[in-house]
Amino acid sequence: MSEEEAFDLPGCLVRVRARDQAAARELVEHLYPLVIRIVRSHLPRRVAEEDLAQDIFLKMFTRLEQYQGTVPFPHWVSRIAVTTCIDQLRAQKRRPEFRWSDLSENEAQLLDNVLTNDDESPPDEALEARELVGKLLGQLKPDDQLVIRLLDLEQKTIREISALTGWNGALVKVRAFRARRKLHKLFTALQRKERS
To answer: All domains of the chain, ordered by start, with CATH?
Structure first.
């Protein structure tokens, strides 16, 4: 029997609703990997992951009576987590404009190589490229960041993104198109500034 099968989610939820503290701890332990994965994939690294995860669990417990059971409980919690991440991104102060000169020489060369070369990058360059993409994504609005991360970085389907965000499929496609266009403009602006 797997750990997933051993955990009695419906029974645990009944006990949590009856104010059983041990059941609440079990529920948090069971859902923690899911929540922390969502937090890490949707927020810049400088955000305190544990604090945000605690906020998500607090929202989950305060809204537990709203859970109707029409969707699997982990999906319901995922939606709370994604919404909380979006709210956190919106709350962050607007950062100053990101410039090519803000990049190290290695990052600038790497970004130029990644965007102009279709060959596979070595693993160390791939990691640096991911961090660099994170810096560029940080310049987008929270909803734009979210759709790019889910669609392009996590390879989620339009349907999965709709389920997580509550946006319809057409809205997901439009946001993705606009976000990609903004990302391209940011990169083009960086290149122009670097050349001048």
So the answer is: 1-92 (1.10.1740.10), 96-196 (1.10.10)
